Each structure stands twice: as C-alpha cells, then as structure tokens.
Amino acid sequence: MSVDLSVKVSAIRLRNPVLVASGTFGYGEEYADHIDVRKLGGIVTKSISLHPRPGNPPPRIAETPCGMLNAIGLANVGVHRFIEEKLPFLRSLDVPIIVNIACSTVSEYAEVAAILSECDGLAGIEINISCPNVEREGMAFGSDPSTAHTVVAAVRQATHLPVIAKLTPNVTDIVTIAQSVVDAGADAISLINTLVGMSIDINSRRPKLANITGGLSGPAIRPVALALVWKIVRLGTVPVIGVGGITTTEDALEFFIAGATAIQIGTGNFVDPRTPLRIIEELKTFLEEEGLESISELIGSLTIEP
Amino acid sequence: MPIHTCHILSHERLSGDVYRLKFVSEPICRGAQPGQFVHIRADVQSDPLLPRPFSIHDIDREVMGVEILFQVVGSGTRILSSKRKGESIEVLGPLGRGFGVDHERRISVLVAGGIGLAPFPFLIKRLRESGHSVFVLAGWKTVEEIVGLERIESSGASVDVATEDGRRGSCGTVTKLLNTRLRAGDFGSESEIGLYACGPGAMLATVAHMARQYNVPCQVSLEERMACGVGACYGCAVLAADRENACPEYKLVCKDGPVFDMNEVCLK
C-alpha cells in the first residue's frame, strides 16, 4: 500500500508537502517543458506587486560557496497582467497555486490581496514582508513586529483566502515577528527568505551585484533555516512551511522532523529542475522503509531528550 | 526537454585553457538550432552549485554528438575541464532562442571575438545547407590565443583573421577588419548581407553600429551570468533597447536570447 504524503497547511490541502518557492519557479510555465509540474505539491508564484516592476539592473546574481546571491528586484508583470496572462496556465495544472505578493505600501498589499481574492482557483496568498517599506524609509516591513503586524492584518482583512506570512531571517528576534503575524491573522508561516549578503570582485574592486547587496540562498543557508523553523514550530501557533537550501530528500526530512508541515524548494530548482519531484518520490520510499503510513507521523518527530 | 545524463565521447584541450568537449545527446542533436545553448552540471556536489551555460559549438549527427568549446574561467569550467572521455555530465537543453536564418539575405557575415567563435561551426553548417555564402571574420588579441579556427576553415566558409598584435591576418581588431571589408564591398551587395556576431559586449556594440551604418541586419549572441537557464529566475537580465517610456525594461538572455536582433537590446 502506498504511503500518504498529503498535508494540510491551515485550510490549504496539499497532495504532497513539496512546493516550489517564490522567485525560483517563475509563473510555472517556464519549467513546464522540463518537468511534470502537475506532480508538485504546490506552486508559489514569483512575487506579484500592484504595478509591473522592471527589476534591478544587471548583474543580478553571483555564485557564492554552496549558494548564490540574487538582487532581481522583484521584477514582475503586476497583478493585472498576472491574472490575464499567467494565471490561466497555472489554473490549468490542477496544482494548488499560492500567489506571493510584494508591495511598497500597506494599502498596496491590501489592494493586491483584494484583487486576487476575486480570482477563482487560488489556494492562498503568501506575503513577502521582506520588501522595503517606502513609507518608512525603506525599512523592510518584516523587520519590525508592528509593521509586520500592520501588513498581515491589512491583507487578512482584504481576503478570505488563507494567508501565509513569509518571514525574513534578517531580524534580531524572529519569534516576536512570528508572534505578531499570527496575532494579525496569518494562517501559516513560511520561512526563511534569503539572508542579506555581499560579494566583491577583487580585480575590479566592484560589488558583484549592481545592487551591491543581495539575498543569499542555497545549501549554505540551510542550517540557519532549519534552526529558525524549529524555533517557530516550538511556538505551537500556526503551521510552518520550511524553506532554505533544500536540495535533497535528507535535507527535506530534517525540516519535517523539526516540525515543518510542508517545504519549499527554491534554489534547488536551478541546480536541477527535477529536485522537487525527486524528493516527492524519495519521501515515499523513506516512509515505507521506516514503516510509516503517512508523512504526518514524521512531522515534528524530533527527539531532544537523551 | 528534461535534464539528462550524457556520456562524454571526447574531450580535448585545444590550447592553454580552451577545451572542446563532445557528448552524446540524441534529443539535443535532433532539436537544437544554431545559437542555442546547453546548461551543464559537471558535478553533483553543492560547490559550485549552479549549472553553467555553453553555446552549442557543433553537432555531429552520425554519432548524435553535441560539442561545446569553452575556456576555463572559474571553478565550474575548471571541474568540467577535468572530465574525461567515458564520464558523464548532466545536461539541460537545448535552451533559448538561437540565430534566425534570413533567407532574403544570402550572404552571411559572421563576426567572432575570441571564444565568441564557439557557436559558429553549427551556424555555418545550417547557413551552407540553406545555400548561403558564408564569410567569417575572427579576431583575437594575440596570435597565441587563436583557437578553434581549423573547424571554421574546413567548414567551407571564407575565413579572415585579425589579431591585435598583427602576427596573423590583418593587424587590429575584428571590427576594424569588418569595416574595411564592408567599405570595400568585398562581400557583395549590401542588400544581400546579414550579420551574425558573438564576442565581448564592446565588440558587439561596434558591430551593431556598423550594421546600422551600412543598413544591414545584425543578430548578436549575448552572455550573462545565469542560474535557471529557462526564464524562471530573472537573473540574466539585459537592458532592452531604449523605449518611449522612461522606465527601464529588461530582456532575459536565457529565454528571450541568447541571440537578439541588435535593435532589441542595449549594447555597450
């Protein structure tokens, strides 16, 4: 008999717990020629803003040890073109679609959430709160408990869809941020977004990214992500989606054992587009070998006592 | 086409740090267009993490072989250079938009700067199959750097070399050579000429400038650091040619290119 990989992230039912992370899977169509995207547990779209964004000047990426830096600048087609041009394909897949939203003011977040709520076939909204707040001197919404609360509460009010808050690790105390987004009505938390990093070309003495700093992702950040996921799981509030440097089934298992209800594959898609599907298959094998009937028996099974 | 494991048929060092590697891939052999690229992972370790893009150098249908010509520039290419015949690599491709063959213009002039020669043997084949006359202008800084030329010379194209040290062919840059030839009308009627260029950014900008001057179309093959290779990460952006609006617009080298019409992108 086959093992049960299905999970529920708040009201979002997933056939399997392996999603693809925002910004690493475009609008889904880009990978459709390369893997069977219908087998994914879910797709989190590129960050969508109210208006189209061209993104940052190049160079936008640089490779670093076991990872990469990116400063794409949230390039996207804007919510209206997203609905017209990108959503029909995503909807045709019969895979839960979670739209990630990223804006520069609280009212824009609420507006985008309200517009998306009018669309059929969406499983949820993931809020990227790592974006600079133009009304607060560009400070990231997610770096302060009160602004994080304000954004999540505004989105919560604007939509009936499940709301996932994606937390940034670039904060002094992620627990207070997590608590405040839960208080504001977040149904789930995903973490971590990228860590701020920098790389310099020693010959030209210029930063490798035109934006100077960028977001670090890939296996290099995985232990950081795992520690923070475990911290938030221990709060025992809402389901947690683990993200950060997962490229193998062993990596994924660590997150489930730590208590993540689902995981997202990000940079791992670039390394090998087959990564999420391979992990889904290998999770089944692992559970069978362990004599477990469902992934839920594994989730949060971390043993701390000696 | 999904990523697939490919066997290395041959791997030779052509000069100091330039290699030519041939691997078996029937789907790439059958489906690839000149100017497209393949995304290669030589190793399944986490460092270096990302695949590396290489333009398709040539296709050998008899053995379903695909060739790349590459220069060692960092850790990814260094590891690839250590791969031997019989070993395998992970390949995603063919990817991107290749060169378009302009059937209205049957005199094709290919301009290469250094390792920018890489995609031309495959293109020459396709152009000659379509009955085009093919001229190749290839430039290097020094005579020692010349590499991969024999493949071009045996392709049936007419070849002209420029070196900046003047020790082989014309003395000076390949763009200077192009200008001389265009001015002299050496290729034939301008209304018949189509330009194809691959090389450093400054060279491409100069070639495009001349193409406009002589009113001939020009396709350029660009290079940029890439992560996904399929248009998902938006990492390999290049500024689109100036538009009416003040807001910048970007194209993706991996998906919209790597080959662009010179009027689509800002060359500098």
What is the CATH architecture annotation of chain A?
A: Alpha-Beta Barrel
Q: What's the CATH H-level homologous superfamily of the largest domain in chain B?
A: Nucleotide-binding domain of ferredoxin-NADP reductase (FNR) module
Number of helices of chain A: 8
Task: Profile the largest sheet of chain B.
Answer: 7 strands, antiparallel
Overview of the molecule:
The complex is a heterodimer of chains A (306) and B (268). The relative contact order of chain A is 0.17. The two termini of chain A are 34 Å apart. In chain A, 30% of the residues lie in helices and 21% in strands. Chain A has eight helices and 18 strands. Chain A has one domain: TIM Barrel (Alpha-Beta Barrel). The mean pLDDT of chain A is 95. An eight-stranded parallel beta barrel of chain A has the order 3-4-7-8-11-12-17-18, surrounded by six helices. With 268 residues, chain B is α/β, with parallel strands linked by helices. In chain B, strands 4-3-7-1-2-6-5 form a seven-stranded antiparallel β-sheet. A seven-stranded mixed β-sheet of chain B has the order 11-10-9-8-12-13-16, with helices on both faces. In chain B, strand 5 and strand 6 form a beta hairpin. In chain B, helix 5 packs parallel to helix 6. The longest helix of chain B has 13 residues. The radius of gyration of chain B is 18 Å and the shape is globular. At the A-B interface, strand 5, strand 6 and helix 7 of A face strand 14 of B.
Give the structure's gist in a few sentences.
The complex is a heterodimer of chains A (306) and B (268). By secondary structure, chain A is α/β, with parallel strands linked by helices.
